[in-house]
Amino acid sequence: MTFSAELEARFAKMMQSYPPGRERSALVPMLLYAQDEIGHVSEALILEVAARLNISRLDVDEVIGYYSMLHKRPLGKYHVQVCTNISCLLAGGEQLLEHAKKSLGIGHKEVTPDGQFSLEEVECMGACCWAPALEINYDFHHFVTPEKLDQLIASLEKVQ
């Protein structure tokens, strides 16, 4: 599998930061960085990372199955994650998720037909004091109301 020169450099630097015999510790960061570049954790990516770290495909699959931020299917250009854990739930997180479903026309772990947005209900983001919270790609948004979500979506649609 071929990655960009930037990602290859990042992998090389990462591998130097782990002591011999501990390279497996690079598994999660490698998967996350590669997912960001190619859009999802493909079968080819799984095999490539397993080979680079000298671990089995099953070892990689077990990690992918555990971490909810690793996705085997392509995400939208803008991945909207809405927290519905207790603090966000009490502050309107469930209503926010339902509003997002209606506004985007998709459900949990679905992608809009144009590939621009994907939606996911997630557990705690660590933003309990600023609930309800959501994340779009790597940008966090706090005290989100349905109106604020509509504004965020509209601003991203203009970027397209």
Summary tags:
elongated, five-stranded mixed sheet, 2 domains, Arc Repressor Mutant, subunit A, Glutaredoxin, alpha+beta, single chain, 160 residues
Describe, in plain words, how this protein is organized in 3D.
It is a single chain. The protein is of the alpha+beta class and 160 residues long. It has two domains: 5-66, Arc Repressor Mutant, subunit A (Orthogonal Bundle); 78-159, Glutaredoxin. It has seven helices and five strands; from the N terminus they run H-H-H-H-E-H-H-E-E-E-E-H. The protein has helices at 5-16, 27-38, 43-53, 57-66, 86-90, 93-104, 146-159; strands at residues 78-83, 110-111, 117-122, 134-136, 139-141. The chain has a five-stranded mixed β-sheet with strand order 2-3-1-4-5, with helices on one face. A hairpin with a 5-residue loop joins strand 2 and strand 3 (117-122). Helix 2 (27-38) runs antiparallel to helix 3 (43-53). The protein starts with a helix and ends with a helix.
Please describe the topology of this protein.
Blueprint: H1 5-16, H2 27-38, H3 43-53, H4 57-66, E1 78-83, H5 86-90, H6 93-104, E2 110-111, E3 117-122, E4 134-136, E5 139-141, H7 146-159
Parallel strand pairs: 1-3
Antiparallel strand pairs: 1-4, 2-3, 4-5
Helix pairs in contact: 2-3, 3-4
Tell me the radius of gyration.
18 Å
Number of strands: 5
CATH top-level class of the largest domain: Alpha Beta
> What is the helix content?
40-55%
Largest sheet: 5 strands, mixed
Overall domain count: 2
